Amino acid sequence: MEFQQPQKPAGDGKIVYPPGVKEITDKISNDEVVKRLKMVVKTYMDMDQDSEEEKQQYLDLALHLASEFFLRNPNKDVRLLVACCLADIFRIYAPEAPYTSHDKLKDIFLFITRQLKGLEDTKSPQFNRYFYLLENLAWVKSYNICFELEDCNEIFIQLFKTLFSVINNSHNQKVQMHMMDLMSSIITEGDGVTQELLDTILINLIPAHKNLNKQAYDLAKTLLKRTVQTIETCIANFFNQVLVMGKSSVSDLSEHVFDLIQELFAIDPLLLTSVMPQLEFKLKSNDGEERLAVVRLLAKLFGAKDSELATQNRPLWQCFLGRFNDIHVPVRLECVKFASHCLMNHPDLAKDLTEYLKVRSHDPEEAIRHDVIVTIINAGKKDLNLVNDQLLGFVRERTLDKRWRVRKEAMMGLAQLYKKYCLHHEAGKESAQKISWIKDKLLHIYYQNSIDDKLLVEKIFAQYMVPHSLDTEEKMKCLYYLYACLDTNAVKALNEMWKCQNMLRGLVRELLDLHKLPVSEANNTAMFGKLMTIAKNLPDAGKAQDFMKKFNQVLGEDEKLRIQLETLISPTCSCKQAEICVREITRKLTFPKQPTNPFLEMVKFLLERIAPVHIDSEAISALVKLLNKSIEGTADDDEEGVTPDTAIRSGLELLKVLSFTHPTAFHSAETYESLLQCLKMEDDKVAEAAIQIFRNTGQKIETELQQIRSTLIPVLHQKAKRGTPHQAKQAVHCIHAIFNNKEVQLAQIFEPLSRSLNADVPEQLITPLVSLGHISMLAPDQFASPMKSIVANFIVKDLLMNDRSTGNKNGKLWSLDDEVSPEVLAKVQAIKLLVRWLLGMKNNQSKSANSTLRLLSAMLVSEGDLTEQKKISKSDMSRLRLAAGGAIMKLAQEPCYHDIITPEQFQLCGLVINDECYQVRQIFAQKLHLALAKLMLPLEYLAVFALCAKDPVKERRAHARQCLLKNITVRREYIKQNPLAQEKLVSLLPEYVVPFMIHLLAHDPDFTKPQEYDQLKDIKECLWFMLEVLMTKNENNSHAFLRKMVENIKQSKDAQCPDDAKATEKLYIVCDVALFVIANKSTACHLESPKDPILPSKFFLIQDKDFKNDKDYLSAEMKQMLLTGKPKPSPVLGAVNKPLTVPGRRVFVKTTTTGSDTASNVSTNSQNSPQTLNKNSNAVTESTEAGARENNENPVINAEDGKKAEAGQNTAPSATTGATPPKRRGRPPKSATAATPATAEKEGGAAAGAGSVRARKRPADATSDTINIKVSKQQPKEDGTKRQIDLQSRRPHLSLWKDAEREGEQGEERKHILVQNPFCLGSEGDMENELESGLEWVILGSKDAKLCHRLQRAWTSGQDSSEEEDGGVETRAANPDRQRESIGAEEAGTLIFYNGY
Description:
Blueprint: H1 30-46, H2 52-57, H3 59-65, H4 68-71, H5 76-93, H6 102-115, H7 127-140, H8 152-166, H9 173-189, H10 195-202, H11 207-212, H12 214-226, H13 228-244, H14 257-267, H15 276-283, H16 288-303, H17 309-312, H18 314-322, H19 329-345, H20 350-360, H21 366-382, H22 389-398, H23 404-423, H24 428-434, H25 437-444, H26 451-465, H27 472-485, H28 488-515, H29 521-536, H30 541-557, H31 559-569, H32 575-588, H33 598-610, H34 617-632, H35 644-661, H36 669-679, H37 684-697, H38 701-704, H39 706-722, H40 725-738, H41 742-755, H42 766-778, H43 784-800, H44 822-841, H45 848-861, H46 874-892, H47 895-898, H48 903-910, H49 918-933, H50 954-977, H51 985-988, H52 993-1002, H53 1013-1030, H54 1038-1050, E1 1052-1054, H55 1061-1081, E2 1100-1102, H56 1116-1124, E3 1196-1197, E4 1204-1205, E5 1237-1238, E6 1255-1256, H57 1287-1290, E7 1313-1317, E8 1336-1340, H58 1345-1357, E9 1361-1366, E10 1369-1374, E11 1381-1382, E12 1393-1394
Antiparallel strand pairs: 1-2, 3-4, 5-6, 7-8, 9-10, 11-12
Helix pairs in contact: 1-5, 5-6, 5-7, 6-8, 7-9, 8-10, 8-12, 9-12, 13-15, 14-16, 15-18, 16-19, 19-20, 19-21, 21-22, 21-23, 23-24, 23-26, 25-28, 27-34, 27-35, 28-29, 28-31, 28-35, 29-30, 31-32, 34-35, 34-36, 35-37, 36-37, 36-39, 37-40, 39-40, 39-41, 40-41, 40-42, 41-42, 42-44, 43-44, 44-45, ...
Region (Disordered): 1152-1287, 1354-1386
Main location: nucleus
GO biological process, one term: cell division
C-alpha cells in the first residue's frame, strides 16, 4: 500500500474530542487521563469504516494519540487504553492508515505489541481489554500494514516472541485462535519468512523450551500445520544451509537441527519434503558423530508408531539400513536399538531388518550382539508374531556366544518367551508350537563346559520351565509333559543336571559328616579336598574356593547352621522345608551394613544347586498319579501334544532317573502298586524302567511291604527267564539288590536256564545268556563250578566255535540291530557272559582268563570269523569284532586281568579303533573314552587315541581329539585334587602315555617301510595328534620331560620282540620322529627334565649301562620333507583350468569307472584304473554329497554328465567284473584310488548316528597300480610256539587317507581356481565378512594367475604367514606343517578348524 501525504488539521487545527471528553494533556493527573481515554475508547469502538464524517472529525485525535506522550506513558492503564484506541483507528481507517511516517508506524506497532504482554494474566481486571486488543488486531489483520516497512521483521519477531511468551494453560480457545490468526496472516500474506522469524517459531519445538511451556509448543505446532505450504520452503532453506552447506552461523538453532527435524516430522511430514534427501547425504558423512546424530534422528522417524516414512521414502530407508554396517560402533549400536521399536510398531519392515540383524548378531562388539538379542526378545515378548523364525534363530545362535553377558541375555530371553507362550499359553497353541524348540535348546546348553552356563540352565529350569513356585500337582504336570516332549539330548542334559545336583548334595553331606569327627590333620585334608570339589561346581572357582573355606569355618562355629544345612540335604526334606532352610541360612549369613555381599551370593549359588525345590515324596506321588491316568486313558495327553504311549514311556523314564537321585521319595505302597502295573504292560521299555526303579528304591520292600514283595518276586523271575535282555539284566540285579535270600532266588533262576541252553535255537539263547552272565558276576562263588562247565562245554565249544547258519552276503559292513542274525546276537552275548564271569571271579587261578583272552584275540585276528568257514556275513563279523575288542577292554579294567594282557593283545584291542567299519570305530571309541574318563582303564589305553589321526572322517578325528583332551584334563585335575595321587604318577600322569603310544605305533601293521616318507608322515601325524594336546602348556617343564622320556626309550629295547632287529629299528625311528616333532613344536624341550621318566617294563627292556644309542635314524632330507611336505612335481600352474596342487589340498579329477567299481565297505576293494588328465576337462569335482556313505568308499564318477553315482553301493562285486584281489580288512589299501567323502552308513546304508559327515579320504597317487593283498586265512596251523599273532598280516587296516579338509563345497564345474581362505571368523570376527560355515572359497579368475603363482609358491615353500593383495583380493598362505587351530565360532556350538596341511 502507499502512504498518504501528511494531512493538515481541519478547521483551526484544534483537536476535536468526543462529546463530554475534555482535552487530554500532560497537565492532568493519570487518573483523569484514564477517565477521559475510556470515553475516547468507547467512541472509537462505536465507530465503523462507513462513518466518513466522524473519521475526518477525529483524525487529529487519532494523530494525537500516537504522540510520544501516550506511547511512552509510564502508566500501563493509559498505555492499554491508547493501544485499544490505536487498534480501532487501524480498523476504522483501513485500508489506509492515518499515520504516514514509517518510523511512527514502527513505533506504534512496537507499542501495541508491548501491550499484548498483558494477555499473560487472565485474572487481571484489565484482561478483557487486552483480549479486545488482540481480537481487533487479529480480525483486521492490522500488522499487515507493516509489510511495506523496511524493518517490519523486527516488529513481527517482537510480536511472535510476545505471543509465544504470554500464552499459557489459562487461556481459552478463543485467545489461542486469535493469536493463531494474527501470526498465520503475517506468514501466509507476506513475501516470505526470514530466518530470525523462523527461529522465533522453531525455538518452541526444542525439547528444553517444549518442556517449559507446553502451550507455546502447541501454538507453534498449530501455526506450522496451518502455514505448511508457505513455510516449508523457508524450513528447507534453513536445513539446506545447516546440513548441506555447513553454515551453522545462520541460526542459533543450528545445533538443534535434528531435534527440530524430529518435531517437524511429528507435526507434518510435508514440512520436511525437501529436507529428507539432505538427511541421506548426512548419513554418508565422514564424521562418525554426525552419522550417529542422523541415525538417532531417523531411528525415531522410522520407528514412530504411525510413521510411513519407510514406505514413502525407500531410498532413505535403504540408506539408513546401510548404517547397520557402519564402521563406527555407536552407530551400529543405535541402529540395533532402533530395530526393537521398528519391529513393534512396523511389523511389515521385519523382512528388511532381518538380514541386517543377522549380520549384527555376529558383530565383533559384545554390546551390539547383546542389544540384538534384547531387540528381538522385547519384540517377541510384546507379540510373538512380530519376530519371525529367522530372528529367533539369531537369539538361538547367541546362546553359544563367546561372551557370558551375551549368552546369558539370549538364554534368559528365550526362557521368558517359553514361559509366556508355552507354559502360560498366552497366544494359543500355534505360538507355543512355533517356539517349542526353546526347551530343548536351553537344556542342550548344559553340555557346555562353563559352570556359569550350567548354573543358568538350572536357574531357568527352576524358574521358567518348571517354576518351583507352582503347587505340587501343577509343577509335576508341567515336568511330566515337558519330559515327554524333550528330544533325546535334552533328556540327557536334564538327567545330567539332576545327577550333578545330587552329586553336590552328596559332597555337602560328606563335608558335614567330617565336621562330626574329631579335629585331625587327616580330617582337615579330607575337608579341604571336599571344599575344592564343591568350589569347582560354583562360578569363579578362585573366589569360590576362598568363600567355601569361609563358609566351612562358619559351619564349624555355628551348630544351628549345620543343622539347617543337614535338613536341607536330607533325603526326606520336602520342597517347603527346603525353602525355609534356604531362607534361614541366608538370613544368618546376611550383614545389613554390607550392601553387596559376594560371600553370600556364592553361598546362594550353592544352596540353589543342592536345595530340592522340585522333587519330594509328594511330588513323586503326583507323578505316579499322572502316570496312572495315562495308563487308564484319562489324562490330558493329547491336549499336551503327546500320545498316551509316549507319555507312559517317558513318565517311567522320568521316574527311573529320579529313582537314582531321590530313592527315598519312592517308598510308598501306592507308588509300588503303580509300578507293578507297569511291569505287566506289553511295552518292553516301560517294564524295563519299572524294574530298574524297583532296583534303585526297593531296599525296604522286604521288611516293610510284604505284599509288594510277594507280588514282585514271580514277575522278576519271569523277566529274568523270558523277558528281553535288558529286562533280564535289571531283574537279576533287582533281586540281588533288594532281597535278603538272594542266593535262593538266583539259584531258582540259574538252574532251569542252565539246563535249557540249546545252541540250535539261538533265538531263545539271548535272554538266558544275559541272565546267566549277570548271575555269575553277582554271585561268582555260588555258581563257580556249574559256570565253568557251561563256559567250557557250551559257550566256547558249542556256540562260539560253530557256525550253524550262513549269513547274508550283501557286502554291507554294518546292519541294523533287527537285521543281525540270532546266532550272532547269541555269540555277542556269549562273549559278554565270558567277561562277566571273569569279572565276578576277579582272579586267574584257573587260567580261564588266559584262555578267554586268546579266544578274543583269535576272533580279532580272524576279523570276527572265528571258524574261518566264511559262513558269516560282513556285518555280523563287524559285530563280533566290536564285541571282542570291547571284551578285552572290559577285562583290562580289572587289575588282575590287565596284568596278563600281552602287548600283542593290547595292540589288537587298540587297532579296533581303526576298523574298516565306521560304526565299529565309533562305538569302540565311545566305550574307550567313557572307561578312561572314569579312570577305570589303565593309562596305556589312552595311547589308542593316537591312531584316530588315521580316521578318514573329519568328525571322528575331531571327536577323538575332544575325548583325548577331556581324558587328559580329568587326569590332571585328579592329580591336583588328590595329594595321594603323587605316589601313582606313573599310572596317572598323562605324559606317561607317550611310551605306550610309541610302542603301539612302532608295531603299527601299516608301518612296514621305515624309511618311506608317506609312512613316516603317518607316524608323525599320529604322534602329533597326542602330543599337541599334551604340549598345550609347559607345566613343570613337561616338554623337557617328554623329550627325556623319548630319549630313554631310544636307549632301551623292545620287550615284545627283543631279538628282532627290524622291530627295534622301527621303535628307534618312531622315537626320532617323536623327538623331531617335540623339538619343532617347543623351544623349552631342551631344558633339564624335572624328573627321570620311568618306562613300563612290560613294553621296554633296559639296556646295559654301556649301551648308547646316539644314531640319528632320520636323514636331513627326510626331516625337511616331514617339516615342509613332500615336494610336488609341477612347480607352477600351466593354465587356469589345471588343478591347483597344494600340499594337503588335493584336487580331484573326474575319472570314468565301470560298474565293477564298488565301495570299500563291501566284500572287496576294487582297484580303479589311473586316469590321464585332460587339459580341457574340468579339474575339480564336487565334494561331499549327502548320498555318499563312509562305509562305501568308492562312488562312481561319470565323466559324461559330471555326476556321482554309487555303483554297487553296499553290495558285493558282480561276478562279471572278473577276479579281484582278496580284500584286506581295516584301512583300505593305500594304492586304491578313491576320491570319496567319508560318511557313516546308517540304517540299511544310511549314516548311523553320525549324521552326514563331510570329509574325504585321501586318494591314492595316480601312478599306483598295485594293491596289497592280505595273506590268506586258510594257512596250515603251526605248533604253539609258531602260532604267534602276526599283526603285520592279520591286522585290521584303515586307509591312511589324510585329512585334506575338503569339507567345503568345491562347487560346480568352473574355469576358476578355488583357493581356500583359512581365516574363518567367529562372532568376534570381521562383521562384514563373517562366514556361515567353517570354510570359505575365494574365486580367482584367469586374470589372477599371477596371484595364484605367488600363493602356490608360498604354500609349497612352507612360508609361515604371508599376505599379498592383488586386484582387491586378499589371500593368506600358511605353513603346511602348522597345527590345527581353533580360529573362532565357539559360540556357534562347533569348532572351525584350520588345517595347515
